[in-house]
Amino acid sequence: MLEFEHYSAFFCLFLIPLYHILHKFSILQNISFPLTFADWEGKAFQWKHSLFRAASIISKIFLYTAFLCFVIALAGPVISRQEKIFTSRGAEIVFVVDTSPSMAALDMGSVSRLSSAKQIITNAVDLMPGTAFGLIAMASEAVALVSTTEDHALFKSQLESLSIGDLGDGTAIGVGLSSAVYHLASSSSVKKCIVLLTDGENNAGDIHPLTAMKLAAESNISIYSIGVGTTGTVPIEYNDYETGKKYSGFLDSRFDDSLLKTLALETGGMYYKADSAGALSQALIEIVKTQNTAQSYYYERKKDYYFDTFILISALCLCFVWFVKRVYMRVII
User: Fold this and answer.
1) In which band, very low, low, confident or very high, does the pLDDT at 110 lie, cut at 50, 70 and 90?
2) 7, 23, 66, 270: which could form a disulfide with 314 (CB 3.0–4.6 Å)?
3) At residue 312, does pLDDT exceed 90?
4) How many angstroms separate the CA atoms of 329 and 28, rounded?
């Protein structure tokens, strides 16, 4: 709800009726220079059509609106909100997301596997305030885009920036997992886990997935693996990152179920097969539930100030009045 820090500023609104009263009693009058064109039998100026009258009325409305917005700005408009501040550490979750070309397959409804994954991960993050999230992009190599952070806006922006083929056309599951373990190993969180989303087999990288699995188990990190997409022949369409060429056709889709199950079960996690957007959403919701942990927190009152907004509206209204008066009506202001 909009509030004001300086209500006394609204007394300035009395200047409007005061101006009209003074004008009515001829105390305030516009400066005028009467001219008589006797030789040409000149007549007093009259508007030729009703559009000028309408323009005059509209300009007055915008002029009063500009003044009103200026007064509101002086009054210090703010919107207060309650923000939950966590004082204890929650769970830490690192997403390892496959960005290889096969993630462009169009078997998750009308969008690609990667696009569907990004949207569903965003929805899952919104369910866990106070949880720290990290993001690893994985293909033929792996890159940590976000270390574990409670800044969900930052996480979402980096998640949205993921695109097909940026990191090559392989699937280095071992490298992606070991990178995630590196970012979680020193954490003191009660719960910490890795969520692996992939649609392929490990075919790149110098680290075997089972080696990364052992590192995770030694650090008490659970791995939740999700096999994304259907198996068999599926349509695919994507733009090659290096050449810019657009490819479309069909993909023989398959992934190593046994490896993904081993990674999860040996670290205390779970394996999910997500052959549709609904199944992927349900899998992430279940993972979120397992990682929920009690946290202490307090509420802090935050204020969003809107002084600049009303000043901008006031300035735009004045510019409109100047345009109507000077350009359209050709009145000297």
Assistant:
1) confident
2) 66
3) yes
4) 23
